[in-house]
Specification:
By secondary structure, this protein is an alpha+beta fold. The chain is 39% helix and 30% strand. A hairpin with a 2-residue loop joins strand 3 (102-108) and strand 4. The termini are far apart.
């Protein structure tokens, strides 16, 4: 279960990067975004917001999509989420301002994001701005990924310094998860989990690991035995109760006839 969970998490990460790269590129070539200089009329801004909202919907509906100009100032926005003081501090935006589409793992206001950015160019090829998509990668994200896995599986996202950034388990286990070595079997609460990790890579290189956790078979077996024992005990109690009820409410035997 741990190996399957880690592999599934790694594949989902790679799929997100591939899809988000395509989403921002499509937005940048949309006629309403590519028509620069951008109009400041309210109606035109609403049209641009509709384009950005469509990008966010394709990315799952969580996060933020922003169109910024060459100075890093917001032109149009869709969605909600933490924003940096200036978008030019994002590695993905820095890459896009040099002309490259980039997908990077970013931390903004203690929140982890997968950020995709692509340049928007003028007719003569100069930079007009950047389309930026920021999608949170948090506990809710990982919990959604585990829905397709075994019920005994879990996922955690670890930074290069082993700090746990997100987990599908209770956050109170993050310290134990961070201290575990790769391949360790660790106890979290009443359960034991095997752990397997896979590296996560963005356009800048390795940014952390996805940790797959699988509740150990011995633990699962003990849980099953415990459930069977409780069921047997319950059935025994029901049998005793039924026997008592039958004897309590059964009619008294008729007195013997004297001759």
């Amino acid at each position: 279960d741990a190996r399957a969970a880690a592999s599934d998490g790694e594949l989902r990460w790679e799929r997100m990067i591939r899809h988000y790269r395509g989403f921002v590129r499509a937005a940048a070539t949309n006629p309403n975004i590519a028509a620069v200089p951008w109009s400041t009329q309210p109606g035109d801004k609403l049209v641009m917001q509709d384009v950005l909202t469509a990008v966010l919907d394709r990315a799952g509906g969580r996060g933020l999509v922003v169109l910024i100009n060459g100075e890093g100032e917001s032109v149009a926005t869709a969605g909600e989420g933490s924003t940096p003081d200036t978008f030019t501090t994002l590695n993905s935006v820095t890459d896009a301002m040099t002309g490259a589409t980039s997908v990077r793992f970013e931390r903004v206001a203690k929140t982890s994001y997968l950020a995709a950015a692509t340049p928007v160019s003028t007719a003569n090829g100069t930079l007009a701005g950047v389309v930026v998509l920021l999608v949170p990668v948090d506990g809710a994200t990982l919990a959604r990924w585990t829905l397709s896995l075994s019920p005994s599986s879990a996922l955690a996202l670890s930074a290069p310094d082993r700090k746990i950034l997100a987990s599908s388990l209770d956050a109170k286990f993050n310290t134990k998860l961070a201290a575990a070595n790769v391949g360790d079997v660790i106890r979290l609460g009443e359960d034991q989990y095997a752990t397997v990790s896979r590296p996560l890579v963005d356009d800048g290189g390795v940014v952390g690991t996805i940790v797959g956790l699988g509740r150990s078979e011995d633990q699962a077996s003990r849980d099953l035995v415990g459930k069977v024992r409780r069921m047997v005990l319950l059935l025994g109690l029901v049998a005793v109760l039924m026997s008592w009820l039958v004897s309590a409410f059964a009619p008294a035997p008729a007195p013997a006839m004297s001759t």
